[in-house]
Amino acid sequence: MMKSPNPGIVRRTFLLGAAGAVAMPAIARAQTGKAAKVSVGRQPYAAGNSPVTQRMISDKLFEKAAADLGYDLTVEWRDYPSAVPMVEAFVSGNLDIGMWGNTPIVRLLAQGQPINILTVGEGHLRLVLATRRDSAIRNIADLQGKTVGALVGGDPYNALSQMLLQELGKADPRAFDIKIVNTPTQAQAATLPEGMDASVAIYPAFLKANAEIGTTGIMNSFGTTEAGYKGPAGEGEGHLLPGVKKSKFFPDGYYLHRSFWICSDRIVSADAAIGQAFLIATQRAVEALGKDKPGDVAQSVHKYWGLDAALGAKVVEDEVLFKRGWIWPTEGDAAAITQISNFMVEGRLIPKPLAWDQVKAAFTKAAPLLQKAYEATGRLPADTGFTDTNAKDLRGPPAWRMGEWKTPS
């Protein structure tokens, strides 16, 4: 027969077990990552960044990636209607990570502001030259002497200047007696309030206004006509306009829309692991969304876009992040910043174009983090994917191979 255990041993064992149980939370606490906070600004009414960040928020992808790298991270997500207030918050030191387009980036670099470009936030957003359904404006030449709404200092204005340059020969609207009215919100541009003859609207806002009040598209930044077009290229939608092939951004269009994630110096230096975690989380979100139907992706941000699945799918299908399946900035993306600075000089937005070294410097600190995130998420795409000559977007070596980048011609 087995002997009963010694009561003293039982008691000591129980106490040791209890002590271990009590000690475990202390051990867990000791293993908890470094506590940190980060503020992230996004533009949920824009394009690809909306569903990407929504997935990051709902699945806590940023926090999980940061935990793997030793951080107990608290993320404050902030929604902004456009780039302007986000830029102001960033410059004042009140925002750690934000996303905006080429135009504000060029302005900040031209002013010598210390910004770090993390990665591509969205791209290939369709910008539509739109008017009322009963308007006599049917092509870009009809804008002469008219009033056009566009976000001044943002991509809509810049896209308009490129359309004018390639189709009519000059980038400055004043050369055609066109009066520009600043439209700070995308919904305002798409609904064409009193006093505007036409506007440049981002695609999600245009589609909503087209469905609800009949706002009509004339042409878009990709270089094709919209339903309301009538002119030298024909009538109706889908015609390739002749000037777009002259653009340095072709095949992307008249204008190479890219919005980039920007961060403070802390995110790429003292707390570089946070920057790396953000990149990992963003890539994971893009890959996850790539497995979903475009209509389902659009419905995840219905409260912002206000589009049904069919219309929202059009926005998703345009997005360069989903076309590529990856987020890494390339030579082509960086070169766009330089080229756009040249055109902004023509449009009298900045005094002189950016030097290529200025642009490259903005990517330098994040480059090592990009490579680590690329490797941590499975090295997608393979090296040849960056230089695929059959791709319908401008590419090139990624930022961590910056030594291969060539000065834009």
Provide an overview of this structure:
- It contains 16 helices and twelve strands.
- The chain is an alpha/beta fold.
- It folds into two domains: 34-124 and 257-404, D-Maltodextrin-Binding Protein, domain 2 (3-Layer(aba) Sandwich); 127-246, Periplasmic binding protein-like II (D-Maltodextrin-Binding Protein, domain 2), CATH 3.40.190.10.
- Strands 7-6-8-5-9 form a five-stranded mixed beta sheet. A three-stranded antiparallel beta sheet has the order 3-12-4. Strands 1-2 form a two-stranded parallel ribbon.
- Helix 3 packs across helix 9.
- It is globular and about 65 Å long.
- The relative contact order is 0.15.
Please write out the topology.
Blueprint: H1 7-31, E1 34-42, H2 49-58, H3 61-68, E2 71-79, H4 83-91, E3 97-101, H5 102-110, E4 116-123, E5 127-131, E6 147-150, H6 155-168, E7 179-182, H7 186-191, E8 198-202, H8 203-213, E9 216-220, E10 230-231, E11 234-235, E12 258-263, H9 272-290, H10 294-299, H11 302-305, H12 309-318, H13 320-324, H14 331-346, H15 356-364, H16 367-376
Parallel strand pairs: 1-2, 6-7, 6-8
Antiparallel strand pairs: 3-12, 4-12, 5-8, 5-9, 10-11
